[in-house]
Amino acid sequence: MDSSVLKKQISAFFILFILFSQLNAQNIPSSHSNIGFDREKGLYYFQDADKKIYEQVRKSRFTVDQLIDGITGTEKGVAFNFSDSLLNGTIYYGLIPVGDGKYSIPVWFNRSVKIVGGKAEVNIKDNLSKTYDMTGWQTKGYGLLGYRITTSDGAIIYDGKIEFVVADPFLVSNTIVDGPFVDNVTESSAVISFITNFECEPSLTVGEREYELDAAKKHELSVTELSPCTEYIYTVRAGNTIFEHKFKTAPKKGNNSKFTFAYASDSRAAMGGGERSVYGANVYIMRKIMALAAFKGVDFMQFTGDLINGYAYDPEDNRLQFRNWKNAVQPCAAFFPIYETMGNHEGLHARFFDENNTSRYLRIDRFPYDSLSAEALFADEFVNPVSDLESEDGSKYDIDKNSMDFPSYKETSFSYVYGNTAMIVLNSNYWFGPDVRKEP
Q1: Can you say whether residue 310 is alpha, beta or left, with left for phi > 0 and alpha for psi between -120 and 50 degrees?
Q2: Could you give the angle at the alpha carbon of 290 between the alpha carbons of 287 and 295, nearest 5°?
């Protein structure tokens, strides 16, 4: 290589490193007066007198994208590549009979396939055809496959779904991998939300109206001009599969007609194995709670905190746990809204670790607050009313009026009205740092 070219590359590298260092240094909120950034190490640190206690960076082994992006069509079905050569385990699979009943969940096949070195393949053509084709994919030319990823010791990591198209080889199509959900139902509006595996322009109908959605992976549509106390059928389609659900709008504000709502909290992963612990979420108990709520005909649910194990250091860790929780409630949450709130276990932390005193460490809410805080991640994963409360309120605690010194309240502290009842939802774990008592 020409030495002048090498010098230019080295110079460019150092310029980028300096810019990155400056950017990180600028991201430190002014509300933390004793946190700095070490440009040489590329790490934040907590200044304790004359000692620097550095952040301990922990990356999540699994991410949502890792578990849904690496799926491709093969001659006989679909192949999975989780980009993790150390992952050995099992994939359980089965067809999802959409439309054959109110709730669309996988009918698990009596066979499974091994994950070896992070890779596996499901033979749809031979194993799920003829008498085992209970969704008619051979006739329709497409189908929806449910899959469950487990580790070698049987721990469940994720339940997913993927649409396949009959071709030579099989194709992987646009798939709704998260949702659909109905959210924020009022007397005249509602929000339909879902996430797709690819950027696409899904179709959505509510009643007699059709909507065009922009090309994206994350989709949220606010439907307005609805009538109070009215049932609406809505359909969502990203690939070939059409999901049909319905919801009922709220009564007019102040109306004294009777209604039923469900309340619950704390669905963290539990002991007992199986679906009681699906990477951070107690799927077993949430499905029972949702089945009871649906049986009682609730109009909405208020779920107040500790959805997942949480206490993560990487946003992608909490995100995967949230997706497992949402997968558990989705079959019912497509029919009535859930208003979720943060608990202490939704915490997402930067962790400063004292290597000379391993029993001493400090955890604070991750920053930058507008993108990496526990509050920002929660608002990104759930659809709740957007509060007009301001955390940057110009008070004496707002040290720097030109920077984001506190997380937003956005969709974690809010209120809503249903008929004659106002629900005020507080985030009692705002800006949560578990070690404040010992490290004030």
Answers
A1: left
A2: 125
Ranges under pLDDT 70 in the chain: 1-26, 440
The verdict on pTM exceeding 0.90 is yes
Phi, psi of 405 (to 5 degrees): -95, -10
State the fold for domain 179-249.
Immunoglobulin-like (2.60.40)
* CB crowding 401-436: b at 16 or more within 10 Å, else e: eebbbbbbbbbbbbebebbeeeeebebebbbbebee
Q: Which two tokens stand for residue 421?
A: 């009842």
CATH among 2.60.40, 3.40.50, 1.10.8, 1.10.10 for 64-173: 2.60.40
The helix/strand/coil state of 307 is coil
Cα within 13 Å of Cα(348), Cβ side: 26
With CA atoms as reference, report the closest residue to 279 among 17, 15, 64: 64
pLDDT score recorded for residue 15? 45
Return d(Cα 203, Cα 244) in angstroms, integer.
Answer: 12
Main-chain phi, psi angles of 100, to 5 degrees: -95, 70
Domain ranges of the chain: 64-173, 179-249, 255-440
